[in-house]
DNA sequence: CCTTGTTAGTTACAAATCCAACTATTACAA
DNA sequence: TTGTAATAGTTGGATTTGTAACTAACAAGG
């Protein structure tokens, strides 16, 4: 019945979205259920947990998140006493963000669960397949916008 | 400095999100720019274009979209004269959705661009890598929620 | 010093999404 | 029948996100 050869079920951006959504939703239940966090918040938390002290812009560059998202996530995380802010003494536009003990505890908890979740997620895939998947995803994430014909 | 072995840069759900977001944003420019559509709308359009007449629930099941999203997307698509609705005569709760000529034209246009975009997206990957990627994404999309320890 | 431009981060308003309640219709069992 | 439950789809209000304008601080040339 259809006139084109296009197949949605094999269309990579579509598959990416489906896969990303299922895995995100699964993990969202954890940080939302345990700490009432939003996706933006756990991203900020994970970055601070992994890389230590960072500014909001640094997180933005690394996580490819818009600065307003970060601003609001940081606001909520400081309210919950998981993050502290400290003005830079040289350049007083910047703030250095750090996890509090409470924030670090949450990070340790969640990163542990994340690691275990990933194992279960990759259960049906071979070591080689996982390796291919990772490098492919990295390349796709870095791909450039559409150029037309 | 960090205490866990967790690596965000290799964490599959994170990579999936990054890749999905880049490719979605790239393609969003197309359907938004050309037809002023939202993501939910092009999904509905694509399903109707591919599978012909469908009800809202059928689209919901296939696309894993919530019914409210579909309801609103269909509303906007009918406003733009891209979709028509027809009550089922036997079960008058259901509506059968079909593309109009205008809707089909938009679908043909966009699916062509999508196909070409996918080619460019997969440029840096070998045939085998693409195959692995596809099957892996399908499996991940079907994966089940987290089970705790 | 001043002006102009840039960068860090916040805020306000509009747009989109989520969730829960709602209507209308059908199914089915007492 | 009739009462209860299930299903298709819509609507309303709270939550979240996106976009653009904003403040504050610095930079650099004149």
Automatic annotation (TrEMBL), chains A, B:
Gene3D superfamilies associated with the record: Winged helix-like DNA-binding domain superfamily/Winged helix DNA-binding domain
GO MF assignments: DNA binding; DNA-binding transcription factor activity
Pfam families: MarR_2
Keywords, sorted A to Z: DNA-binding, Transcription, Transcription regulation
Record SMART domains: HTH_MARR
Chain ranges of the HTH marR-type domain: 9-142
Name the UniProt record assigns to this protein: MarR family transcriptional regulator
Species of provenance: Sulfitobacter aestuariivivens
């Amino acid at each position: 019945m259809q006139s084109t050869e296009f197949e949605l079920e094999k269309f990579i951006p579509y598959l990416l979205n489906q896969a990303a959504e299922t895995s995100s939703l699964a993990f969202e239940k954890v940080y939302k259920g345990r700490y009432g966090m939003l996706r933006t918040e756990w991203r900020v938390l994970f970055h601070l947990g992994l890389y230590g002290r960072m500014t909001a812009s640094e997180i933005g560059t690394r996580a490819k998140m818009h600065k307003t998202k970060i601003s609001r996530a940081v606001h909520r995380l400081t309210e919950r006493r998981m993050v502290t802010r400290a003005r830079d003494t040289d350049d007083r536009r910047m703030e250095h963000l750090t996890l509090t003990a409470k924030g670090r505890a949450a990070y340790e908890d969640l990163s542990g669960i994340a690691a275990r979740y990933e194992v279960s997620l990759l259960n049906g895939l071979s070591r080689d397949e996982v390796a291919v998947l990772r490098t492919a995803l990295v390349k796709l994430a870095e791909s450039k916008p559409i150029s037309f014909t």
